[in-house]
Amino acid sequence: MQVVIDLAYFVVAVLFILGLKAMASPATARRGIVWAGVGMVIATGVTFLTPGLRNIGLMGLAIVLGGGVAWYLGRAVKMTDMPQMVAVYNGMGGGAAAAIAALEFVRGGVSGVTVAVLAVLGSLIGSVAFSGSIVAFLKLQGLMKRTWKLPSQNLANAALALAALILGALIVANGSTPLLLGVFFVLALTLGVVLTVPIGGADMPVVISLLNALTGLAVGFEGYVLGNPALIIAGIVVGASGTLLTQLMARAMNRPIRNIIFTPMTGEAVAGGGAQGTMREVSALDAAAMMRYARKVVVVPGYGMAVAGAQHKVREMGKLLEEAGVEVRYAIHPVAGRMPGHMNVLLAEAGVPYDQIFDLEEINADFPLTDVALVIGANDVVNPVARHDKGSPIYGMPILDADRAASVIVIKRGKGAGYSGIENELFFQENTSMLYGSAQQAIADVVTQLKTME
């Protein structure tokens, strides 16, 4: 029987890796998700063949309940709410890893220094991922609108981490007691909260990716503790891919990961990027005419498009422009939205062809040749101060060069600063026009005007 289980886990590992590779492209992402899902079903099913397995009824009940909730949420959740869903799943994964370690310590299933060290590390990382993901969910859902920063934030972070590590070392050296375990987990959970609470919306995509990586590491460690190859493989795959993605996104913001954690952008108004001038308003009719009679239009979507759920209207507008002979493309910044790939998912859902969607490196050189850049709810990722203002918190961050288009139209709800709290120099440029309002309504008005034009 063990041979069957091992072979099944090998197949699962292959499916996970192939699925992850397929997810690298929007064209094959759906296939990759199906492969990885099939692998997870096989891994779960074959676990029931483990000799001496007990509590099968409870396990079956937990799978039915958990699977039922996940199935309902997967069908019901709006695409705009996907970041919150990802945060919840991150948290559940980390929490499950921490709970496994806690139960193994309580029932005396942890033997040997190596296993104990991995169990403690998995507990610590899993707890941080769990509580940090809960805070991320509350922020993304709008239930936590402010950021809080302690007077000595970094000192508090270091003290909590050090205290948790010392308790973890005591557990490894002397064994666990209920009191020691309880204090250890309280410290670990508190550390996750304290680390995440000061982080504002501008850094949230990187934080989501980092929490995902932590969850993977925690699951991998606990897989070693249980001697379960499927958990080890799944954890390593998630942890490694999440770590690479986090590094890529941090590089895209030109911010080391340590700065995101220890010097976060809180979203409060900050010095730097003090743009001055007048914002010029444009009507939907004028915006429609500018794009209708242009040769090349580049659409830059941001979180404002996601919040308004305007992706379908954007696609309708794009089709009308294409029918009029206008070349329409879409430019995506690596950290646009509230999670990695947020804008790609929304545009794909709306039916935007993959070959019209371009990353920053692919399209930036074309902005000087573009007649109109339409910025929808994006802010910091098109702020020119990132190029020249050394005092700005976003200095050095690669941006989409929308300001270098012949004309720029910005759809924005109001005149406030971006999530990093910095005024956007683009909004005050002579070639920029502001179309105020919800992205959904603003694009709908543009579509209405386009339909009246010959």
TrEMBL record:
Occurrences of domain NADP transhydrogenase beta-like (ranges): 6-448
Pfam families: PNTB
One Gene Ontology CC term in the entry: plasma membrane
Endpoints of the signal sequence: none
InterPro entries: DHS-like_NAD/FAD-binding_dom, NADH_DH_b, PNTB-like
Top-level lineage group: Bacteria
Catalytic activity: NAD(+) + NADPH + H(+)(in) = NADH + NADP(+) + H(+)(out)
GO molecular function: NADP binding; proton-translocating NAD(P)+ transhydrogenase activity
EC class of the enzyme, as a word: translocase
Topology class, membrane: Multi-pass membrane protein
Entry EC no(s): 7.1.1.1
Keyword flag NADP: yes
Localization per Swiss-Prot or TrEMBL: Cell inner membrane
Keywords in alphabetical order: Cell inner membrane, Cell membrane, Membrane, NAD, NADP, Translocase, Transmembrane, Transmembrane helix
Transmembrane region(s): 6-24, 33-50, 56-74, 86-106, 112-135, 155-173, 179-199, 231-250
The family this protein is said to belong to: Belongs to the PNT beta subunit family.
Role summary: The transhydrogenation between NADH and NADP is coupled to respiration and ATP hydrolysis and functions as a proton pump across the membrane.
UniProt protein name: NAD(P) transhydrogenase subunit beta
Organism of origin: Deinococcus koreensis
